[in-house]
Each structure stands twice: as structure tokens, then as C-alpha cells.
Amino acid sequence: MKKSIVNGLICASVLLTTSTSVMADIQGQALSSTAYKMVLIEDVPGVTALQAGNVEEGLTATLSASKYTVDDYSRNVNLCAGYIQMSDMEKAEKACSAAVKSARTQVAIPSMSVRAYAYNNRGVMKLLNNDNLGALEDFKRAAKADSSSIYKHNLERLEAALNTAQSGVL
Length: 170
Fold this sequence. Notes:
By secondary structure, this protein is α+β, with helices and mostly antiparallel strands. The chain has one domain (3-167): Serine Threonine Protein Phosphatase 5, Tetratricopeptide repeat, CATH 1.25.40.10. The chain is built from 7 helices and 5 strands. Strands 1, 2, 3, 4 and 5 form a 5-stranded mixed sheet that branches. A hairpin with a 2-residue loop joins strand 3 (21-26) and strand 4 (29-30). Helix 2 packs antiparallel against helix 3 (72-85) and helix 3 (72-85) runs antiparallel to helix 4 (89-105). Mean pLDDT is 80; it is low at 7-33. Residues 1-24 form the signal peptide.
């Protein structure tokens, strides 16, 4: 199971492909390295369309894939990211939570690093829903499960934003 990284600010809507990672572009302005990052599972139907910015096409392909083609965990990780990109937060919450539940309960999920994907993406979704503390908890779980720079980046970025807000500096 390969992963792809989605760099995206909250409410990102357009995706541009750059090798194996995906970067969001908001209103024509390239994002800096401070954007929150999301993960896609690369071997899931629809991932190429999601990476290319064809979010509706990617979601349709992911949803229509047979259960024999893709497991529920991988499907939900990618649906979570896709629905976030479309700002469909109700569906994003369901997909993100289903991915986390699968990551915790399925024997087929081989490693803690794979579990980090689900926690990370759900953290971004929680930020969109103004649940900063819930996002912080998910980013901490992702960073604890896998020491990848992706999860550390999101955790450190949110902690810095929360510390700045507490000190009254905007």
C-alpha cells in the first residue's frame, strides 16, 4: 500500500500533481510549506483523478470500485481526502471516522504507520469543522504511530497556531 501526500490549506479545492505528492493551489496562489498535509493511498481506484484535481471523478471511481478491488480502510482514507477537497464535511466526517475505525479494528491493517494515515486525514477534517482540540488529538496520534515528517509537520503547525492564539498574537 503506497501513500501519496496532499498538501492543502483548510478548504483546498484544486489539486495539482507533482510526482507522487499532490499539492493544493488555492485561487491560483501556490501554497507554502506551511500547509496542512493529507495522505492518499495510491493503489486505490480513483487516486489518479484525485491527484489530478478531478475530485468528483476520483470519488466516483473510488466509490464504484468492487470490495474485491479495494479494502474499506483504503477506500475510506481516499474518500476522506476527496470529500474534504469538495468541502462536503458530512461525508468527509463519515469516511474519515470509518477509516480510523478500520485502522483500529481490522487485522489486515499491518502497521501503526498505516493507521497514522487515517488519524492525520481526520485531523485535517476536524480543523475544517473548527474542532482544533480534536484535530490536535488526531495529529498527536498520527505522529505517535509514525514519526514521518508529514505528521510532525501538521502537529507542529497546529500547536504553533494554538499557542499564538493563546498568547493573543495574531
